[in-house]
Amino acid sequence: MSDSLFLVQLGLRYLHIYGAIALFGGSLFARFAVVPTLATLSEDDRRKLHEQIRSRWGKFVHIAVAAVLISGIANLGLASQYDFEPRIYNMLAGIKFLLALPIFFFASMLVGRSETAAKFQKEAGKWLTVNIILAVIIVLIGGVLKFVERKPKAKPATSQVEQVERTFIR
User: Which among 32, 57, 150, 169 counts the fewest CB atoms within 10 Å?
Assistant: First the structure.
């Protein structure tokens, strides 16, 4: 806790986790409760219920996407102050980031109002399943990243004497 950025990192971690929980939990609920329920309703009732859910849940999706995206990018920036062993951290973090992008897209389409969004909504079960699978992979990668050894990078030498010492005395 001696790190001067501890509170910032803690806040970003919570923001990231809560945003991810909302997206993942919402996808699970929609896939295994809402989609099967909608299938039992008449077309008119299905449309009305979908619109009610979409208008309420869409705000949460957009806030959660923003929270995960902002905190994830900030965390990647903060990670640059460390050296990682083994050196797979950056690759895995990049893969995790790339896998999150379709989650954001599909979640946004499933609560959207455009004609394109309507096409995704007709196959909501499929896209929710894709989101759930991607989210599980991201969580698994995140678990690995948590245990990658990290060491603060050496501070750059401020004088020529320190540069010489770092070069030859190590």
Answer: 169
Read off the pLDDT of each residue in 86-115 and give the average, rounded to a whole number.
94
Angle, in degrees to the nearest 10, between helices 6-29 and 43-79: 160
Burial of 30 (0-12, 13-18, 19+ CB in 10 A): buried
- The string over 46-76, giving b where at least 16 C-beta atoms fall within 10 Å of a residue's C-beta and e elsewhere, is eeeebeeebeebbeebeebbebbbebbebbe
CA dist list (Å): 54 to 29, 102, 111, 121, 135 = 13, 19, 5, 10, 21
138 — pLDDT class (breaks 50, 70, 90)? very high
Give the residue ranges of DSSP H helices in 30-88: 35-39, 43-79
Q: 112 pLDDT band (50/70/90 cuts)?
A: very high
> What gap in Å lies between CA 139 and CA 75, rounded to an integer?
16
